């Protein structure tokens, strides 16, 4: 956490291209030594106690989510939602309440069309977990937006997290973790491709944790420079075989919908479209596709919580 604090302290004075170049160097170097746990951690396939399977005898579950980090990303959300809708998918869009002006019109468009809206931190400045006092102060503002938007889900920026502190948020689920992702600032994974319940205390209430189980688009296409969705497809096939939850987190901020040169921080939206098409063609009738809130309510019922 100290390294993270230093990074965010220095971030405003480091040119963006230098930040990307440094992260790319670190990720590519680390990738060479992480093949035994990434993109697949074999130990993450263990089924929960008493597990009886997904509804309708589906082989695996599919959950699509998006973090909208910037105003530019917000401008691409409708295009992204329409792409998914045209292919028969729905997803959640997580907005940063006080980094840019979140469009009420867009939020209503999404929910009216069967999508979900969630909260993605508060300012996206890397300081949310800097101290307990600061977190509690910001938690009040986050809870305000959760209520105002009718949202029940939260995800921390940069996957920073303190699962104990998150109990102070009025949520049904959190999505700030992953099964395995050694390239994140807090690199410790949950080691599972299934949701799990985080209880506040013995006999007390809590929330459902939904770890993402497919690599983030920024990692794959911007930092690693992958030119296809092969890593996603490989991991999805493994998750399907193991009967887990395939949860993907992508960012409209980095998707290029305009054609031409993708630039240093973008990739063609066609890579995402390609993956969705692959899901439909290779796994037809094998997956249970739901929104995060629907997954949460299923999990609570299935686990008798």
Summary keywords:
305 residues, alpha/beta, nine-stranded mixed β-sheet, 11 strands, 37% helix
What is the chain-wise order of helices and strands?
HHEHHEHEHEEEEHHEEEHEH
Q: Would you tell me the overall average pLDDT? A: 94
Mind summarizing the main beta sheet?
9 strands, mixed
Low-confidence stretches: none
Distance separating the two termini: 33 Å
Query: How does the helix and strand content classify structurally?
Result: alpha/beta
* Total beta strand runs: 11
Structure, explained:
The model has no long low-confidence stretch (mean pLDDT 94). The chain contains ten helices and eleven strands. It starts with a helix and ends with a helix. The protein has helices at 2-10, 16-31, 71-75, 77-86, 104-112, 132-149, 217-223, 230-242, 269-282, 292-302, and strands at 60-68, 92-95, 116-120, 153-155, 173-174, 196-199, 206-209, 245-250, 255-256, 267-268, 287-289. The strands form two sheets. Strands 1, 2, 3, 4, 5, 6, 7, 8 and 11 form a nine-stranded mixed β-sheet that branches. A two-stranded parallel sheet has the order 9-10. It has 305 residues and is α/β, with parallel strands linked by helices.
What is the fold's blueprint, element by element?
Elements: H1 2-10, H2 16-31, E1 60-68, H3 71-75, H4 77-86, E2 92-95, H5 104-112, E3 116-120, H6 132-149, E4 153-155, E5 173-174, E6 196-199, E7 206-209, H7 217-223, H8 230-242, E8 245-250, E9 255-256, E10 267-268, H9 269-282, E11 287-289, H10 292-302
Parallel strand pairs: 1-2, 1-8, 1-11, 2-3, 3-4, 4-5, 5-7, 9-10
Antiparallel strand pairs: 6-7
């Amino acid at each position: 956490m100290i390294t993270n604090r230093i990074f965010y302290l220095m971030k405003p004075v480091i040119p963006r291209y230098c930040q990307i170049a440094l992260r790319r160097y670190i990720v590519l170097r680390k990738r060479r030594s992480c093949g035994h746990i990434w993109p697949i951690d074999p130990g993450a396939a263990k089924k929960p106690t008493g597990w009886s399977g997904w509804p309708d005898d589906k082989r695996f579950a599919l959950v699509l989510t998006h973090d909208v980090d910037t105003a530019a990303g917000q401008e691409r959300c409708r295009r992204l939602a329409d792409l998914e809708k045209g292919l028969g998918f729905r997803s959640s869009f997580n907005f940063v309440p006080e980094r840019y002006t979140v469009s009420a019109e867009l939020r209503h468009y999404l929910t009216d069309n069967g999508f979900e809206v969630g909260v993605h931190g508060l300012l996206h400045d890397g300081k949310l977990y800097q101290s307990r006092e600061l977190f509690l102060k910001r938690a009040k503002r986050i809870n305000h937006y959760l209520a105002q938007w009718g949202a029940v889900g939260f995800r921390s920026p940069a996957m920073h997290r303190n699962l104990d502190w998150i109990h102070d948020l009025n949520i049904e689920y959190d999505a700030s973790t992953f099964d395995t992702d050694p390239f994140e600032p807090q690199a410790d994974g949950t080691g599972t491709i299934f949701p799990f319940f985080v209880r506040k205390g013995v006999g007390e209430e809590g929330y459902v944790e939904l770890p993402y189980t497919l690599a983030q688009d920024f990692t794959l296409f911007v930092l690693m420079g992958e030119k296809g969705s092969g890593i996603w497809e490989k991991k999805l096939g493994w998750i399907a075989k193991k009967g887990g939850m395939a949860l993907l987190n992508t960012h409209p901020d980095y998707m290029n919908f305009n054609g031409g040169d993708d630039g240093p921080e973008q990739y063609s939206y066609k890579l995402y479209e390609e993956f969705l098409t692959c899901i439909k063609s290779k796994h037809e009738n094998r997956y249970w596709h739901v929104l995060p809130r629907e997954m949460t309510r299923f999990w609570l019922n299935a686990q008798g919580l």
